[in-house]
Structures are given as C-alpha cells and as structure tokens.
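User: Can you predict the 3D structure of Adenosylhomocysteine nucleosidase? Sequence below.
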Amino acid sequence: MDGGCKRAVVTAGPDVLAGRRVLFVMAVDAEYGPQLRARISPLMTGVGPVEAAVALTAALSGLQARGELPDLVVSLGSAGSRRLAQLGIYQVASLEYRDMDASALGFARGETPLLGLPVRVELPLRIPGIAAASLATGASIVSGAGYDAIAAEMVDMESFAVLRACQRFGLPLIGLRGISDGAEELAQLSDWTRYLHLVDERLAEAVDRLAEALERGELAL
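Assistant: Sure. Here are the predicted structure tokens for Adenosylhomocysteine nucleosidase:
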C-alpha cells in the first residue's frame, strides 16, 4: 500500500494454488476489490512497515506452531511511481528500506547497521510475462518532489517488512504491485483510492498468472 484506509480483518491461513500453499499479504481492505476477493483470502496487516512486520510475524509464528507454514508468500497491493506506467502491474525485482539512514555512523543510506544485508535485496523468483521493477518501502507517503531522493522505480509501505519476516522463517517471497498514483501530486485520500478498482482487476490477472506458473512448474519453490 502507499496510502491509508480502514484496516480489514486478518484471515487464518494460506490459499492453495496449483497444490502449493500461498500466503497473500495485503495492507487494507480498499486494495482488496471484487476480483481479488473471488480468488484469494489474504492476511491483512494494516498500514506501514511496523504493522506489516507485527501482523505477518504473528501469523507465521502461529502457522509454524501448527506445522502449516506456506510454500510461498506474496506481498500484494498498490504502489506509487513517478516513472512507471500508471495502473501498470509489476513484480518486485528488488527491495530496499528507504527510511533507514545511519550514514552518520559510516553506513550507506538504506543499510541497516550490523545486519549484513545489502541496501538493495534482490528477489529471485519471477512470474513469466510480468514486468519487474525495483521497490522501496517506507513509512511515509511519497508524492511530487518526494520522489527526487528515491532511486527505486516504485514505492510502498509494507513489502520490505514482509521480506524480513519471510527471511526469518526461511520463506520465498514474490511482490506484486499495481501503480495507483505518482503521476500527479497527492492532495487527499481519493487521489490514491480512485483507481484501485482497476488495480484490483489487474492484480487479479497477475494472481492468475502466478497460479499458471506454479501449475507449469515455472517457479522453483
């Protein structure tokens, strides 16, 4: 997500696609339109990296205790971009944490001190036929000149936190994002929500492509 809206109810467990347990992770109900509702039952985390980390870690801990960890996690929702096609669907090629800045201590901007992760973490899994782009996660809404300081092609507020939870549990991650805004300055909530019904339709098509790729054995899980 790259905006704010009412939080939805957290769901219980993964969906099954082509015999694989896939946990879809979304932020809020506004992004979960009728096309996605017809296909998946995601974990809803709330807005931002803190809420995403807390909700997903709790959910994965519960699934692990029951011996039901998913085969794959998918971070799904909207993103902002000033460079990519509006309403385009992109899978995440790499992730970075745009809030982290310990440069006063000699660390590169975006590098978490003493963690050992690079500034930009590559995601190796790719769904055939879906364009890939870099993504930067942070707790702020990006608009207008705010994009000047961001090297990544798109921004959201949850996916890096989802990545870190997946790394803790040894789970593979795919990110799918629909560009909902960024071409114009944001001034109100409706500037984000007005195209989410179209993002919903196109993300649903991407979920179908994911299911097809799993069925054909095109993703090495």
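Residues 3-10 have pLDDT under 50 and may be disordered. Residues 18 and 215 are 5 Å apart (CA to CA).
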